[in-house]
Structures
1.
Amino acid sequence: MAYIFLTAGLFFSNSRWPTNSTTKANRGSGSLRYLFDDYAFDTDRRELHRGADLVAIAPQVFDLIEYLIRHRERVVPKDDLIDAIWSGRIVSDAALTTRLNAARSAIGDSGETQRRIKTLPRKGFRFVGAVQETRRPAITPMDSVTQNGDTASQSLLAPHLSIVVLPFANIGDDPEQAHFADGVTESLTTDLSRISGSFVIGRHTAFTYKNKAVDLKQIGRELNVRYILEGSVQRGADRLRVNVQLIDAETGNHLWAERFDKPVADIFDMQDEIVARLANALNAELVAAEARRAEHSANPDAMDLYFQGKASYNKGTDLDSLTEARRYFEGALTLDPDCIEALVGRADVDVTIPAAFLTDDQGPRLVAAEATLNKVLSLAPQHALAHLLLGIVQVHKKRAAQGIAEFQRALALDRNLAHAHAWTGVAKIYIGRAAEAEPHIHEALRLSPRDINSYRWLLMIGGSKLHLDACQDAVAWLRRSIEVNRKNPLAQLWLAAALSRLGALDEAKSAARVALALDPSFTIHRLRANLPSDNPIFLAGRERIYEGLRLAGVPEG
């Protein structure tokens, strides 16, 4: 049998190559661009950029990458790939491997790591990197050149949640802190890339700006990002100060700032803690900033609606906020049925409503969430939040051990996912080991003390104390939770139960009235009907809670 061998030596820069009908499909007006890590893959210009740098790539290799990205929702069999790229010609396995290796090399991947292009033995190939789509507006002769003589490509709309972490400045030029400053920059770049829907410029590009006087708006244009994070490290006696600022790259306005002042301790532990706190705080800040942008968009896309949904979700664990969030996620899925982040968002709502006891029948919500999460993990097996949510589903289906295993998978993928620590603590309550819950939840608070979810974690500790019948401690934790977010009915209900058991019936009834104003449909029957565990120690604790709720005036159902 004759084989056509395709050489790997065609790395001239981005010349035109005839494309098949598949690679031309669905382009519409303007150029479709795929963004992943700090790469931008432009299908019309047939250009691959890493940050501001053009990557040389052979035409056939470009077509191979494009085909895999376009069909990233499935495993592409070898025969499909050959039909699409080589029009069905006979191609040896060695030639195909050579092209795949060239494709991986072009996008910073390798056959060993397979972080972006994965080979599934006897099945095919799949692009598994997180991808964001955007379109370069069609350029007319009138706007092909700006007033400054810059090409129109520089005025391209930056992708959603796109950010560069500039090298942190070492104030005072203390050589001992230079490595620490660089380490914070690199770790933060890595950790921000784990935020759902983010596009983070890689550290190699970011470090080209080190020790340079920079115009932040110019950097935004050069790297085509919406946000810039800059910071500094300063050592003083036995303390270390880290300052950070989040800046709108288009306007130059400061959106958020934070300062850490800590006694000098183990340098690596300090770096990990500071990076974790920054990454978690920035997650909420960036979501809020993207939601504000989306509010003013005349033609919102799927990701615009996703960020609005996430901002609604972050308002609190009440039915109105969650219903509003789900409406945005559904709107995003109407525009893009395979929008992974919107699918995760919808599943998050469907998990949270039963987890917060906001429904009488948890079953349908949990079934819907599990189906959605299984779809997400088939498309994106490394999605940390999807694993976390699937773990919560498992816990509420009385499979706590499987749930804890999912939480551990989530943390292996994203060490900053503080909620996975907290839910490990909750699972311990459900299996009758409430005394072990608090350290796990404290770890969540340590990683992200100002987290948007901190009110939930305080509630969880209060719940663990209530199950241990340590009601005085429970009251203290629950009141802290309510101070952070007053829209959570479950915190008021647990507070009512704890106060009742302490004999403070007037205060207990007042808390119960607030809870029922937030959720008028709540009854004790709802708690009984949706038990997440059959563990006898857990059930005995629940009976004490039921009695406390009755004394506070909560209806039986």
2.
Amino acid sequence: MDGAGGETARGSLPPRTAPVRFAAFALDLDGRSLMREDGGDVPLTHSEFALLSAFVRHPGRVLSRDYLLDALAGKRADPFDRSIDVLVGRLRRKIEPDAKRPTLIVTVPGEGYKFAAPIRAEALNPAPESAPPKTAGSLAGEREPPRLSIVVLPFANLSGDPKQDYFVDGVTESLTTDLSRINGAFVIGRSTAFTYKDKPVDARAIRRALNVRYLLEGSMQREGGRIRVNAQLIDSESGAHLWAERFDKPLVDLFDVQDEIVAHLARQLDAALISAEARHAARSPEPDSVDLYFQGMAWLNKGIALEHLARAGEYFDRALALAPNDVGALTGAAWVKMMLASAYATEDRADRLAAASAGLAKALYLAPHHALAHLTLGRVEICANRGAQAIIECERALALDRNLAAAHATIGMAKLFIGRAEETEAHVLEALRISPRDTLAFNWLATAGLAKLYLGSDEEAAAWFRRALIVDRNLPNAHFYLAAALAHLGRFDEAKASSAAGLAINPAYTISGFRAGSFSDNPTFLAQRERVYDGLRKAGVPEA
């Protein structure tokens, strides 16, 4: 098995425009829906749809619990994990004539499950060349590729040394696996991708052959003690470059550098793919819940300015109106509510956090292995004075997605609130190592600065806050924290200017409001926080 993104997990049957038909049902892989042939709709959760999709891709094959959990969640199954059994039971109740005597999804004792229903052959054939395009934007006579569909083409080895091929191929293979962990992604397996090794890239030909929206190509060159990497994300329809990255790293430990390259590219690509999908969605005359989700995520990726959060929230709400069980939209809406409560100290903070918790409880019931939902819950736990639990949630998120840099930063934030501010900087540095230009980097930089401010290292704190504000000047708390640090350093004119900049963004900010919005009752944390109140006061921030 190639891993979570390999042929056996995802590449055997690319989604077709025509529904896959079995028994009395038609499964629309593009539209993510299940219908009875008499016209009735069968509601499926994200996890149920993913499980059924895995079965219809491999009719007649025995699929182990380990394999199914790997395919659905991108992780190996614990021998005692029975979540797949529960999910199979729920799915049987929806599609079997008699769930107690299943004939479609049958148990193979000691091995796993087999999808025993015959698949109608016509559903497996490619759409004919004369078929009309699904959307106006697709090439004439072609199927419109599914959302978030991508092939990672083998990176080129520019070192002139064939012995380096193993290293370059290792990066390609690992990147294929890591991208497949993106929720909803369809990633062509490495065995198919490697048939294009050392061949010229023809984006349209690859689109026709593999039915993917995006191509990732790149090159690596190892010279002396450094390694240079170039990568480009290509639109398969137009051949346009949607995103490009170029960087070089000192070569110390070969495998550490390989992991760092993969983590860096995977995180940047996640954001680039969301932006590309949001542009597709904006052109759709009748956007569905997934289109709206991508547009909400694109606004979130712009930063935490009030306008961005408000627009993101609108899209997530619209998505949930169409699909109340959309796990991505539930998680996105919870993130918006949490950020509004934590960054802007709103009067309805408690209500927002309660709503975020409720949305995440539903999301994790529907999809227990959703890494971003666990991360978001970690942020909510911090706001609820449960820093230790926040760390546990973030560690769960990292077990599911090792490239989730924000989880490292959130662990650092949680440690600040449980009186361990001296440990915060290391976690922030790890987040920045994985994703140095992350859309949340300004928030992480401010977190490191706040830890230094709590510890009395005001010069270091000011440096961190300035780095945060270079990335995003719309972070109100960073202005206020910088003002407090500058006031402690005796630079009062600069402190008052920074305070004024913060108040221009959030005019309702007061010291009493900041004090009331404390996320922790840890005595060490509270003692350290007193010096922040004093600094804000000296910088001219209103008391109430």
